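REVIEWER CHECKLIST
Item 1: Sequence provided? yes
Item 2: Single chain? yes
Item 3: Sequence as submitted:
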Amino acid sequence: MTSQYLRKLSGDEYKDLTLKLHKMQNGCCFICQQPIDIDVHTTNIDHIVPLNTGGKDNESNFALTHESCNKSKQDAHLCVARALHRLKGIQESVQKKENRSASLKDLLNSENGSKYDFSFKIENNRLIYTFDKLGSTEVHYAPIFIDFQSKVKSAFIEVPLEYLYHDELINPRGINSSINLLVKEFYKKNPQLHLTLARIDNDKIKVFDGQHKAVAQILLGTKVIPVRLFIDADVNILTETNANAGSKLRQIAFDKAVMRQLNNTQYHEKVKEYQEAHGLQPDNFHFSETTLCDFFKGIKMKTYILDAIRSSITTSRDNKMKDYIDFEGKGKSLPLSHSTYDKVFLSKFLDSKGILSTPMDYKSEDGRNPRELEITQICQLLSIITEELYVGKFNQEIGLNRIESRIIDQRDSDITDEHLIAYRISKEEVLYAWTPYLINIIKMYFLNNGQIINECSLFQTQFPDQLWKNLRNFIHSLSQLPVWKNRSLASSVFSGKKDQGYWKKIFETGNTPDGVPVLSEPLNYIQMIQD
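Item 4: Structure as written out by the authors:
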């Protein structure tokens, strides 16, 4: 909403107000908190609290910002915009340095949190504790409550950030876009209806639920977080409960990627449990996946094992494709949703029923362990696909939004052929049609060399250099087909979502199911793998 107050100011009066705000803000932008050079930077004066939400149109409600910060702000309310800008900086830094999503851990580190162990004892059904490392010797007392059904013990306390940690074991999630709404909600002084949940682990208070609520409050300046603290709770039970809340019970929004990570956590905990039950050292893996399933009967051990493999592939530093996957499923800037990635690549490359009977450390010494090979080689193939289709070609700023409509409306001057190829060849129904050719190329190579291998465990056999070359040649040849950059097909072949058989028919015959020519000839992967 336009400021009548500012409109009435003369040029000199506006300049004087700019200088006054600049001095009040110690020469820094209200949003990004970085210096403003009045002589160099273009600036804006904006309302801190928007007029349409009750803000006043006078000097008490004005702030000075870089024009670029004001234009790119994530909220109309400048205090919220400042909090979100700060978080964005942390997220970009973590992504650049560690190639992962930022979490509560990273925000706590930026706030000088996660520093101290928790000193406590339990007497007469009370939790007795101090935060003496902060300079106070005050002793605190909190009653311990025992859950009637589970008998789990917990207490309700307020924890300074210096004593708070992120529980990456139970909750490996990064911060998602819902944080924007939470920051706005807390800024309006609306209370949280569900407290942050934490547990004591090795004398550390670790948050495993309510991460986003804690993040939102910290961004707005909170230094002490109220938590429900679980005492002596079984980590396996908490992990299972947290996972069930996001899957079976639908109490919280866990997508498939998070469930994979949680099941990965359960898998590693079960491995430890098996080792302890059999007196094995932590580095002794001379037992099989089949043995684990037999030992933990009644538990979905098979799901834990397979999700651990999927999670290892997805989070591997060697998997270049993960940088092009939208894990939240809400954005329009990345070519692959996690659902598509999971259904097309992981489902086709991994046997969903295959549990190994060989020891987990089988042939590890010479680099031929079946699971290690499988994970490494799937990552390598995903990276080859990424290099051929996305790296330096797919423009995230253009993304996916209304590509075909823009072409039809002739508003596509900024859409390069390479971006269009990557976009079209990554449509789920198209991926379903061409990824089976990769499997056929692998099988054909081994058959031609007199080696019959199990189709369900293709990636557990070492691929020679020539096979990798064949796979890369096929993907490159596929990406060079004229159909992908033919813009005249935007309103026909590429309009709307097609079923899985549509592109299968095109690749097999060169024509659509209703006989419209699309390719000059059917795909011939024998020719396509040649140099």
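Item 5: Key structural point noted by reviewer: The two ends are 61 Å apart (CA to CA).
Item 6: Recommendation: ____
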